[in-house]
């Protein structure tokens, strides 16, 4: 079990504008003994944005060095899935999935995985769930720093790519007690015997 230590917030100097604003808010309040109000003269100056020179006429704008790859379309003509939006799934089942009312039959925790390993683990996990006839599984991605974790963004994308898309009916953010926005309920398609 990993123990996480809380990160200390980064301290930055208070700007002159912030000091003036605060002084207006607390204008008639006396500070506690031993405390003083910030002095606007000692506050950091507000940085002035520097305007960049426009490019010479006739030149193309610079392209970003690493543009994001275009999203891959789901294969087999299946519609793309999004959180809580599962085309073809009946409304009652979709609502029960979103509310966390369906029984979770397996859990995959991707905390601490790098992208390549997480992708392989997800693929293997969904394949095993599909082969075993499991319907609802929980995939824990974590929220990442500031709620913008890489796996939190990537897992829905991977679920929309082949061959996972053919095995998945829908997904939705989990309820808070199952991980909230750092986890997904994934509804796995029923395995059809081909005889």
From TrEMBL:
Residues 33-45 have a biased composition (Low complexity). Residues 1-90 are annotated as: Disordered. Residues 108-189 form the Smr domain. Residues 1-20 have a biased composition (Basic and acidic residues). PROSITE patterns: SMR. It comes from the Bacteria. Residues 46-73 have a biased composition (Pro residues). PANTHER family: DNA ENDONUCLEASE SMRA-RELATED. This is Smr domain-containing protein. It comes from Magnetospirillum fulvum MGU-K5.
């Amino acid at each position: 079990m990993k123990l996480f230590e809380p990160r200390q917030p980064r301290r930055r100097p208070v700007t002159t504008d912030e000091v003036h604003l605060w002084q207006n808010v607390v204008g008639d309040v006396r500070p506690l003994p031993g405390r003083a109000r910030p002095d606007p003269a000692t506050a950091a100056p507000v940085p002035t944005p520097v305007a960049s020179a426009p490019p010479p006429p006739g030149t193309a704008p610079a392209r970003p060095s690493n543009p994001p790859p275009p999203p891959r379309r789901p294969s087999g003509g299946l519609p793309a899935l999004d959180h809580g939006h599962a085309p073809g799934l009946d409304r009652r089942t979709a609502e029960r999935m979103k509310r966390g009312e369906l029984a979770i039959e397996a859990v995959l925790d991707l905390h601490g995985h790098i992208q390549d390993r997480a992708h392989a683990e997800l693929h293997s996990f969904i394949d095993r769930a599909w082969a075993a006839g499991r319907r609802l599984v929980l995939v824990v991605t974590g929220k990442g720093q500031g709620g913008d974790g890489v796996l939190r963004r990537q897992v829905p994308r991977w679920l929309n790519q082949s061959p996972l898309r053919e095995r998945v009916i829908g997904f939705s953010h989990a309820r808070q007690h199952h991980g909230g926005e750092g986890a997904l309920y994934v509804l796995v398609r029923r395995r059809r015997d081909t005889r």
